Amino acid sequence: MTVNGDAVDLEPMTTIEDVVASLGIERRGVAVSLDREIVPRSSWATTTVTEGAHVEVLAAATGG
Q: What is each CA distance from 4 to 27, 44, 64, in whole angstroms?
């Protein structure tokens, strides 16, 4: 699968929540898309990532 443009190997049945945790980033202010569809935070723990999937994890930034 691809996470933020990088190929990664993850265990079968990996969830979006697992992916975010593996990146070591704070969940607050984070949005995730799976194959170009936004995944609601309430679904992170139950949404599994399949082989060949494209995941983008975006963190909000402050400043201007």
A: 16, 17, 23
Question: Coil, helix or strand for 41?
Answer: helix
What confidence category does residue 35 fall into, taking pLDDT thresholds of 50, 70 and 90? Answer: very high
Predicted TM-score (pTM) of this structure: 0.86
SS3 3: strand
Token pair recorded at residue 45: 């723990």
3-8-48-5 Cα dihedral, nearest 10 degrees = 20
Place of tokens 């999937």: 53
CATH number of 2-59: 3.10.20.30
